[in-house]
Amino acid sequence: MAGARLRCAGRLLVCVAVLAIPGRAMAEPEPVTSETRQVAIAARIAGDDNRVRLVMDFERKPDLHLRFLENPDRAVIDLPETVFAFPEDALAPRGLVTSIRYGAAGAGRARMVFELASPATMELVESTEEAEGSIHRVVFDAVAVDRATFAEKVAETIWTDAGAGPRSLSEASLSDTLTIVIDAGHGGIDGGAEGPSGSMEKHITLAFAEALKEALEGEDGIRVAMTRSDDSFLSLSARVRRAREEQADLLISLHADSIRIKSLRGATVYTLSDKASDAVAQSLAEQENGAEGIVGASLENAPEAVAAILVDLARTETRVFSTGLARQVLDSFEGQVKLINNPLRHAGFRVLQAPDVPSVLVEMGYLSNPEDEKLLTDPEWRRSTARLLAQSVQNYRKTILAGRQ
Question: Residues 6 or more apart from 133 whose CB is under 8 A from it?
Fold first, then answer.
């Protein structure tokens, strides 16, 4: 692809091919030869809701790494660079396996992803030579297990190996520093919501962003950047680009919307999902995503030409980390900041759609509620809540560091 480079996804190091971002050098892939390239000659799958068998034939003995992921449940097989020479319909989903994706996963690597209908183990049960050594056959069995057993498999998964395999966020950075990009919602001509007393969302989010920046800068191992530091308009896609340009480990987008239900008040934390968790989440996502229309901005659903399988995988990995941060935020708010019922929600907020940057949208409260408006405009409440949010980021960072041990 002309102008493409390899970008390691949001420090997750799930590599995706994307259009080059100005100011960054193009990565040079390692040369691949016929001696290092693997060929998958044939594949077949059979089974039901309780057990599925996968059989694959290779030109030579493959170097396989099996890993597991949750939300959704998946088994992942990592391989050296592999040509998948079998027919596309050879691996049709069935039984326990609801989706199968495979393809290149960066320079010198390939990946197969098996999405599971329910928790299941997947074990290599056989590796044999056939046809006088000209074919190397491997057999995997996927077997349904309970949630606790699958969670143990996920916890045991290691995303590093002696070669150049993908790594998780917890092992990605060479330093212990996390880069946090704070996004103050709205700005400029886009004022956002307005409270009963005339408070404007764009001013509230910027003031809170500045308080959060100050609180985070007092924490060890944190570098902070902001999408805007004044009353200027930024498109949603520009906010996402800003986070990626900063090579953000996390994006925190701050909002204080209005809603028709005037009695609704309290904080909410949103993560990205293709389908909204409820009608309130859907309404707010539509409201936020439509904000650019007031200045005729071009909305970019997919601003980069990417290999769909890799972007989907990167986005799935990123959502796992986003959910982890969201839970840390809610834990820090519990008992200190009023929360709405079911405060962890999800919807298709465009500002959260970077495939490679873990992101959350923090709805600090609702300007449509007079009590929330009073708190949102209170400097002391702002400082104390910013400190709690900063502590949740530090707690999240510590869980990442602990994963390196």
Answer: none
Instruction: Using alpha carbons, list the distances in angstroms from residue 196 to 228, 234, 254, 360.
Output: 26, 26, 20, 27
Domain end, chosen from 163, 190, 211, is at 163
Residue 85 has a CB neighbour count (10 Å cut-off) of: 14
Here the CATH number for the domain that contains residue 316 is 3.40.630.40
CB 137 within 8 A of CB 46: no
- Which residues are CB-contacts of 231 (< 8 A; sequence separation ≥ 6)? 187, 188, 202, 203, 206
Confirm whether 18 is domain-assigned.
no
Q: Side by side, which strands form the sheet with 250-255?
A: 222-226, 178-184, 250-255, 359-363, 267-272, 339-347
Q: What span, in angstroms and rounded, lies between the C-alpha atoms of 326 and 392?
A: 9
The closest of 188, 183, 187, 202 to 367, measured between CA atoms, is: 202
Same domain for 259 and 291, yes or no, is: yes
**Is residue 184 situated within a structural domain?**
yes
Question: What pTM, to 2 d.p., does this model score?
Answer: 0.54
Question: Average pLDDT for consecutive 10-residue bins of the chain (405 residues)?
Answer: 32 33 35 63 90 91 86 86 87 90 77 90 84 82 91 74 36 62 92 93 96 91 93 86 87 90 89 56 51 39 37 54 85 90 78 74 93 96 95 84 53
Query: Look-up: residue for tokens 């326990």?
Result: 96
Please check whether residues 108 and 203 belong to one and the same domain.
Answer: no
Q: Which domain holds residue 154?
A: 38-163
